[in-house]
Design brief:
about 600 residues, alpha/beta, 7-stranded mixed beta sheet, 6-stranded antiparallel beta sheet, 13 helices
Length: about 600
Amino acid sequence: MVKILNLSGFSSCGAYQQAKLALGGLTAIFPTRFSVNIKEHETRESYMTWLDSFRSSIGADAHKTSPIVWFEEGNKYLGGRDDTLAWCRANLTCPETVPVKTPNVDTWNPDHGFEYDLVVIGGGSGGLACSKEARKLGAKVAVLDYVKPSPIGSKWGLGGTCVNVGCIPKKLFHQAAILGDHAKDAKGYGWSNLDAGTHDWATLRSNVQDYIKGLNFSYRVQLREAGVTYLNKLGAFTGPNSMELTDAKGKTQTITGARFVIATGGRPTQLNIPGGELAITSDDIFMKDTPPGKTCVVGAGYVALECAGFLTALNQGEVTVLVRSTPLRSFDKDVVNFVQDYMQHHGTKIVTGVLPKSIEKLPNGRLLVHYGDTSEEFDTVLEAVGRTPDLAGLNLASLTTDSPASPRNGKTGLKLDADSGKIACVNEQTSVPHVYAIGDIVHGAPELTPVAILAGRMLARRLFGNSCEVIEYRNIATAVFTPLELGTVGLTEKEAIEVHGEEDIECYISSFAPLEWSITERHSEVNCYGKIVVKKSENNRVLGMHIASPNAGEVIQGFALALKKGIVYDDLINMVGIHPTVGEEFTTMFVTKSSGASVAKTGC
């Protein structure tokens, strides 16, 4: 239960400011234990007038100074500055009732008699990290990884989505797009004819795929050197502790394990419309032999907008994005608006409120897409409408909680969340105690590669290294690599209001142009945007930081650590920024959103 305190005084009073800082620090350290309501008076006279009429209501008739502090519950009087500081010092230790993190419990028996101590199903970033960490701690480990081809036949090697068809190729294609944009901007910097070049899709595709194949090989070498058994086979449970494996030629074998970690990730959700099979997905775009040409991108998430952005910048053809409702709806709306405006200004067509009704293949080989009240021909349709947990075929129904490794009363299978279809977990442990899950298939876990990696390593340490540390699935920074990048950590403005109430939330905002844009023509009508979300009653504790700018991912990474450590707004404003940089913007945001004042910045 949160203990609520009330503080009042006048702004120029040093004793009041000390009490305010002390209570603000305490609430920043223990946000789930304490909260502070502040009533600040501009002058001593107004405070004393208020105090004369108020103090008797809390039994503080003798109190005649600033500040005054009392508890919300029962209107119990605490005292002035000295009493408040003493109370804060006394509460700087955690109560005995705070639960202590404990390792996962699955009745582990080192003499289990199975073939492996741990079987990891999935050779993506999380699965590889978990398997190598477990082996380092002495466990006998096997990793299964078998890539089922996409509907049009695309397939790849060891490393999972991020390495093969996600983060890595996406960032490289994004960088190719940035280089093209820089060539266009070079004229303003005195360079000639750099913007006259054309882009060769085949060269980019070939170089990216060669790099990825090198990564695939290095992962196999790492597993071998670590002593992890790599099995390029598709696995399905045949019982609580056994799996049947099938290789590419249909040959089968059975293995057994004491513990299992499911790390299979997700695959793109297919369009459920007539002709939906004619569309490609992010599993295919980076391996496409020929340039995509005029492209229709279906979806509103980060995959859709990232792909639309680099396809537009690579000048492979017109790009239209069909959005059912709101682009990037889980991100801060104001920041997203700047990303959307930038993309549209630089040539991407975004149509909201529609989805394709059907896709037809025409005799000329092009695809006719029917959407809204119109139809339009495209060379490629790229669907990016979400991802589906890759759990089909694992035969999860064969898992029960009455196995020898995890005895329980009754037979309850592995539990999935009814809405997401993902695995319900507590600290990565499923409802079948000796079976664990990490990464995108865990209900409530962010679908981010670094999350899966850290969760996998921490899980291995708990299972085989006596660790008690668990991953915290909040205040995790991420970036969207759209043409104008988006970096974010913490709560959006909307989320903060839903949690803490609109009256207790303030946002400091800024609209600005990076110095690099100042002598280019392409950016004269667009801007970047930043936002700091704070909780007023806790000394303006920072709840979220969001930015739309070049290199937003690099900018937000460092601030994410500061936010996790509980910074307040004044920590940012009193920090000396590095000039002239985009990151400096977070140290100079003085305009509040509630003021309605202009946020446009000019000069330094």
